[in-house]
# Entry
Amino acid sequence: MRSIALGYLALLLLAPVAMIFYRTFEHGLTPVWNSVTAPNAQHAFWLSLEIVAIAVPLNTAFGVGMALLLERGRFWGKGLLGVLIDLPFAISPVVVGLALVLVYGRTGWFGNWLAGHGIQVIFSVPGMVLATAVVSLPFVARETIPVLRELGTDSEQAAETLGASAWQTFWRVTLPGIRWGVVYGVVLTTARALGEFGAVSIVSGRIEGQTQTLPLYVQDRFENFDSTGAYTAAVVLALLALATLLAMNLLTRHTRRRTPV
Amino acid sequence: MRRRRLPRAGARGQGALGKGLLGIYLTALVLLPIAALLAKSSSGGTSAFWREISSPEALAAIKLTLAASAIVVVINAIFGTIIAWVLVRDDFPGKRVVNALIDLPFALPTIVAGLVLLALYGKGSPVGINVAFTRAAVGLALLFVTLPFVVRSVQPVLLELDFSMEEAAASLGARPLTVLRRIVLPSLLPAIISGVALSFARALGEFGSLVLITGNLPFKTEVGSVYIFGQIQNDSLPAAAAVSVALLVVALVVLGVLSFVSQRQSRHVL
# Structure
């Protein structure tokens, strides 16, 4: 049993990932350094970070707010709302991109209005932020809801009895209680946002040095037969993924929940 | 345990403002795009919708997507359960590292997943296996990205599973295979089904890991999401929207069945 399991993992997971590190460094460090410092690579890297820096805080605020609403609120259609929030996981990233183009693109629902106000969403950074936010939308709420449920309402009620306002109760009682769940959700959101490919590929127009994120840059380099460039960018992303795994493992000690999607 | 509600969850004014913001965000990101997608796919009426999804290329892509996803989840069910079993019941040095690495396909960007597989199993492969631009590549990429689902849904159930049942069965003379078939597998089945459903839904929409390794050859290795991508590039949005809606419906049905099954089993995973 053990050899079957480990053999399968080695063939499917470990060997390929190890191989990409080998391929990256097989011609020494100079080409790697040149690839890392190439202007388009640098631009792609910083653009990816910029998008993450906008999309992740927005999704975190949304996720915590939605978790509070779903777990503490009582209203009609709550079940439906829960399904709606998870919807981005059921949709292909390509379909997310298409749906956004149909609303915010030149020929989309808001196309004329946006153009009239000089706002370009599709084929520019705002659209890429939107696409990234959609595909990573459910994580924070998903991770926060069970923690919120486990926390219960006793201490919140105590705070309220003692005269705390709703705002104070949230910052001083609720948030400290759920923080590890939120942080775990943020880690998953960040990893997903950094690596998003399909949705961003459609809404970005993939303009070199302008709307090219790091994952898009990997594809561009590969298709232009610059394998060192592609492998180097991929290794940077792989290292970020490994850092994510490490963070997830440190955090599960706090939350003792296993990874969902 | 009885759960009580806060009598006034969130002061009224702030609460209303917060709810409004949440609503706007959800509408802008999910509701409007989905509505626009549905509108576009049905803009030519039902007959146009059927014509789009039954065009030879679209049909071939949809069929390949369904078939590849189905094969992949069966392999996932078997190997995922074995891996979960080894991670829970077995003990070996480095087990914690292996356990952590299971999540790597979720953390790794999909385009990197495709490149990683291509580096080992593509042209110039050091092990002499070249699956690039074949249907095997579709399966390989899907296996990679969906690996964690079954493992992660079976693992917690296996952890809670009571040894004493198996011991009792064994002491009554049941052979190991009988214990596995009659005692262990029935208790794991809901978790396996749940992992399979999540894998299936993910495999249906997978895109990033496939673009480099499959070559996107129509009628051969082109899956649904790649077909949709191509139609968007050609500006045939109605075709893209129709196939999108078809895949979305399949994914929602699968996840709907899953939540029905898991509710009946009262074991929540989704």
Remarks:
- Chain B has one domain: 49-160+189-265.
- Confidence is low (pLDDT under 50) at residues 1-11 of chain B.
